[in-house]
């Protein structure tokens, strides 16, 4: 990764996820009279789509939590306008000659929202909390490049052996197992944010309500009506508060894109996603903006549940999917069809896109799909295919794609599949428990490197959720992480993706992009391709 995400420039449009349940009038606030015109105060009105998973940075490991967390809290580094990591809570960073030891000097003026100083001990506490097996953080694997981290997280080592330490109140030291080019980028992820140790020790539920939340970012959590809305206020204790322009940010929780758009049109939101049926009508709007995003919409098989125990059956269903039709006629927001898992936006040492070099690994082919299904059923001795159910979380867009897949499987394979709609509040938990046979999913990059996408499917990864395991794939990912020759590393990653797409524990549908409407006078919102919204420099005129 010599140059990353060169496709992605400064973002001015904010990403909104539409998923969970909320009433159609969610997002109105009596203190703001439900309007995006807030009078003398600068209040930005946005939609979070659903209730954040958690404001514990070790647990809220998804875009619906990151948008808020990246503004309520701040790590040692922060992504700038070009999505490059720069000093944030850390004023300066020293790196040893061998590239293994990082010393972070924390700003003297860095304070928590309660006025107490941010200390190196708060980072030690937070990172140990993330790695604690009892926390069960889905982000813990991101820290495995730290000496002792993986062993502790797996229950095979002691917390004292994790190579992070506070030399003094303002000096935080980290030792890595090997030089890691993406390290400063990785730790911009909210999972590496500090936690106010005294608050969390006294009240383990500190992150569940506004009145107990303590952050160190540009904004405070002023109020939180669960499943309805939450409100930010400017944090006057933030070290760079003089460059924060907004007084408040009001976040609605509206899961329906049509309702969201109606609120935007009514002046109740400053930013909105675009309903699929409105995409052509709005494509020339001066308020519309589009940019790529590093992520993939895909489906997971449970490879331990028939009929997807058979590789050829998995392949058959994958080749029966017409990705191009889905982006043209269903999602209709200019997404690129996904013929592999790693998205566009990653340039290798030779200057070529990873996606172009890796090629088209799975693409609609009805004849091939039918043949693979017949071969797979013959291998298993099945005269009739075991029943198949597609599971998806509550959302109109997820439902539309699931219904389209149902039609495509019938057309290409002559297979009838059932649909199961599951509330978003329980969907992820049940998917992790392998309760679904074939289920929708999504991946947004945590940091800017193809290995981040592929490492999700190593054996026993919390992100795997397929029960698939492949020793050769695991070995290639391990080699790629240790490889210091950039060209060799790139080839290793390409080979790993080929195995993933041949074994087919998943099949991709489309790569993400961001199509957003934004009111005139809104500026300075940064939307980073790895999934973080940054409102630090946002303004409303």
UniProtKB/TrEMBL annotation:
**Where is the protein found, in the record's own terms?**
Cell envelope
The biased composition feature labelled Acidic residues covers 26-35
Q: Name one GO molecular function term.
A: peptide transmembrane transporter activity
Known InterPro entries for this protein? Answer: Peptide/Ni-bd, SBP_5, SBP_5_dom
Segments for region (Disordered): 26-49
Predominant location category: other
Protein transport listed as a keyword: yes
One GO CC term on file? ATP-binding cassette (ABC) transporter complex
Signal sequence annotation? 1-18
SUPFAM superfamilies named among the record's database cross-references: Periplasmic binding protein-like II (SSF53850)
User: Into which family does the record put it?
Assistant: Belongs to the bacterial solute-binding protein 5 family.
Protein name in UniProt: Peptide ABC transporter substrate-binding protein
């Amino acid at each position: 990764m010599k140059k990353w995400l060169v496709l992605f420039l400064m973002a001015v449009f904010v990403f909104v996820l539409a998923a969970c349940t909320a009433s159609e009038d969610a997002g109105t606030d009596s203190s703001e009279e439900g309007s995006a015109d807030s009078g003398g105060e600068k209040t930005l009105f946005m939609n979070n789509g659903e209730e954040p998973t958690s404001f514990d940075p070790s647990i809220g490991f998804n875009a619906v939590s990151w948008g808020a967390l990246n503004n309520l809290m701040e790590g040692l580094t922060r992504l700038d306008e070009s999505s490059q990591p720069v000093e944030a809570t850390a004023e300066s960073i020293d790196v040893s000659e061998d590239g293994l030891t990082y010393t972070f000097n924390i700003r003297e003026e860095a304070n928590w929202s309660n006025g107490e100083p941010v200390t190196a001990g708060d980072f030690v506490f937070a990172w140990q909390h993330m790695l604690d097996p009892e926390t069960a953080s889905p982000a813990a694997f991101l820290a495995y490049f730290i000496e002792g981290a993986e062993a502790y997280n797996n229950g095979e080592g002691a917390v004292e052996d994790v190579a992070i330490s506070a030399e003094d109140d303002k000096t935080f030291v980290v030792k890595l197992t090997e030089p890691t080019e993406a390290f400063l980028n990785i730790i911009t992820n909210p999972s590496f944010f500090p936690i106010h140790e005294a608050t969390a020790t006294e009240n383990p539920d500190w992150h569940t309500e506004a009145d107990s939340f303590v952050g160190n970012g540009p904004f405070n959590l002023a109020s939180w009506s669960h499943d309805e809305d939450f409100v930010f206020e400017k944090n006057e204790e933030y070290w760079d508060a003089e460059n924060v322009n907004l007084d408040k940010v009001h976040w609605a929780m509206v899961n329906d894109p049509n309702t969201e758009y109606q609120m935007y049109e009514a002046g109740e939101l400053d930013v909105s996603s675009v309903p699929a049926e409105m995409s052509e009508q709005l494509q020339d709007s001066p308020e519309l903006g589009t940019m790529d995003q590093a992520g993939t919409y895909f489906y997971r098989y449970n490879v331990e549940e028939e009929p997807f125990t058979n590789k050829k059956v998995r392949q058959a269903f994958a080749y029966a999917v017409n990705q191009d039709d889905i982006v043209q006629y269903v999602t209709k927001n200019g997404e690129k069809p996904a013929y592999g898992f790693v998205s566009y936006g990653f340039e290798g040492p030779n200057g070529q896109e990873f996606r172009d070099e890796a090629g088209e690994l799975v693409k609609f082919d009805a004849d091939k799909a039918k043949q693979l299904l017949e071969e797979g059923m013959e291998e298993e001795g099945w005269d009739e295919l075991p029943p198949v159910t597609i599971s998806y979380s509550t959302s109109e867009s997820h439902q539309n794609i699931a219904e389209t897949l149902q039609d495509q499987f019938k057309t290409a394979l002559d297979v009838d599949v059932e649909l199961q709609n599951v509330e978003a509040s329980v969907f992820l938990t049940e998917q992790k428990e392998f309760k679904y046979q074939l289920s929708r999913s999504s991946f947004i990059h945590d940091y800017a490197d193809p290995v981040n996408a592929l490492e999700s499917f190593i054996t026993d990864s919390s992100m795997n959720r397929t029960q698939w395991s492949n020793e050769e794939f695991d070995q290639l990912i391990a080699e790629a992480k240790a490889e210091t020759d950039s060209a060799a590393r790139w080839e290793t990653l390409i080979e790993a993706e080929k195995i993933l797409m041949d074994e087919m524990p998943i099949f991709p549908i489309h790569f993400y992009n961001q199509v957003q409407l934004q009111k005139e006078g809104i500026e300075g919102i940064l939307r980073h391709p790895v999934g973080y919204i940054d409102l630090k420099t946002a303004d409303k005129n």
